[in-house]
Each structure stands twice: as structure tokens, then as C-alpha cells.
Amino acid sequence: MISSITKENPAAVTTLDEVRHGLETGDFVTFTEVKGMTELNGCEPMEIKVTGPYTFTIGDTTKMSDYKSGGYVKQVKMQQKLTFKSLVDSLAEPEYTISDFAKMDRQDQLLVGFQAVDAFLDQTGALPMPGNAEHANKVLALARDINSKSKNPIGELDEKLIKQMSSNARGDLSPMVNP
User: Fold this and answer.
1) Which of 63, 75, 118, 166 could, after both became Cys, cross-link 128 (CB 3.0–4.6 A)?
2) How big is the CA angle at 142 (ends 166 and 123), to the nearest 5 degrees?
3) pLDDT 10s digits, 143-166
């Protein structure tokens, strides 16, 4: 609920005392049941700039009628267009969020390992069996092949890690298993 709107450029909107609006700069809002400044009622969504937990500014209201009382503000979710790199481009030049600075090359090793396990699945129609040395060696061979054909091959593959990935490929995380 709105307690006041100033007639300035930009206009400041204040919510009722101790009622945080919960909006962020860049959000879009629309208004209803405003007495006075009726031009705001049902208006096109307006972008706001947050100035405090109880206040934000909207566009120019100097040409609108005077604000009298009341009104509600409602956040409007606007459509956004997102673009992503293709899978081929992402695999050629991966971008990582580093989670462990002690293991800087780990992400590259894991990426090659996951690709190798996926290639094993494509070739055999099944994931590698847990503890199966033959399957682990096949996944390692696939990982070496994938790494050698990469635009940016990593140095030495961590054989133990790739074999562990092969052995655990059929594992399930209990909270994540489909019923």
C-alpha cells in the first residue's frame, strides 16, 4: 500500500510505515486504486529505482494530477531474452566457476571425464559398471582421445579421477533419484 507519491521528476513513492516494498532497482511496477494521479492506475509497467526499504522513484509525474491518497503498487515481471553459447562452443572454450582454488585444473579433468563417460554410454548403450577395470580402462582411453582432439588439451590426465568417475557413473544420489 502506498502512503505518498511526490510530484517531482523523478517522483518518489513511499509505502506505508514499516511495510518494506521488497523491490530492487530495475524492477517494473504498475499501480491500482490511486486517488488523484489517476494516470498511474493501470499504467504501462514503469521501471523503478530503489532509494530505501520503504521508498523508490518512478518516472516524471509533473504533468499528472495531484496525488491525494492510497493506492497499491504491484511488481510486474518483464520478459527477458537470454542467449547462451552453443554446446560445441562451450566445450571448446569452457568457462568455470572455481570452487576449490587448491585444485585449479580439476574442472578440466572433470569435463573430459564426463565427456568420456558419455562417449562410453553412446558406444555401448550402458554406463560403465562399478569396479569394472575393463570399463574404467575404456573410459580412460576415451578421455585420452577426447583430450587429444580438444582445441585446448589439458596436460596430464588424472587417471585415478577418470577411473573413479567410470566406477561411480551408475551411482545414484538418494534425494535426486526419480521415484
Assistant:
1) 166
2) 85
3) 999 999 988 888 899 999 999 999
Q: Which domain holds residue 157?
A: 87-171
Alpha-carbon dihedral sign for residues 92, 93, 96, 102: positive
Range with the poorest average pLDDT among 3-17, 24-38, 40-54, 111-125: 3-17
Phi-psi region of 178 (alpha: psi -120 to 50; beta: other; left: phi over 0): beta
Q: Are 37 and 108 part of one and the same domain?
A: no
**Domains held by the chain: number:** 2
Residues 6 or more apart in contact with residue 167 via CB below 8 angstroms: 128, 130, 131, 132, 136
Query: Is the pLDDT confidence value at 45 over 90?
Result: yes
Nearest to 94 by CA among 82, 85, 81: 85
The rounded distance, in Å, linking the Cα atoms of 14 and 174 is 48
